[in-house]
Predict the structure.
Amino acid sequence: MERKPQTYANHVKWDPAFHFFLVPVALANIILAIVHLFRFPSFGSAWWLVLSLAFLVALDRMRAYGTGVQTRVIRLEERLRLAQLLSENLRGRIGELSDQQLVGLRFASDGELPALAQRALDEKLSLKDIKKAVRNWRPDYSRI
C-alpha cells in the first residue's frame, strides 16, 4: 500500500475512534450528567457526574501514556541517529536537545539533520519551528 508523502501540513494523525467517537461521547456524557444533576439533584446524579469525569480523565491518561512511551522511544532512536550523523563537535551536545526537539528532528532527512540539529541547539528551536524548517520530510507513519 503506497502512502501519501508526509509534510508539515498533513503529518498530524487523527484516530477516528478516539478523536471523533470516544472524546465527543465522553464530553456529551459530562454535559448530560451536569444537566441531570441540576434537574434532579441526588447522590446518584452527582455520582454519574464523577464517573463521567473519571471516564474523560481515563481517556486522557491512556492517550498520554501511549504518546509518552512513544516519545521515549523516539528520544532513544534520534539520539542513536544523531550520534551516527553529527560531526564530532556536535555529538557532545546531543544531551542538550530537549525531548520535544528530538521529536521534531525525527522528521528531518539524514542529509539535513546535522544542520537542523545545530540550529535547534543554537536557536533553541521549538518542536513546531523544527518541523516547519524540515525540507526533505522523513515520514513517521507509526506515531499515534
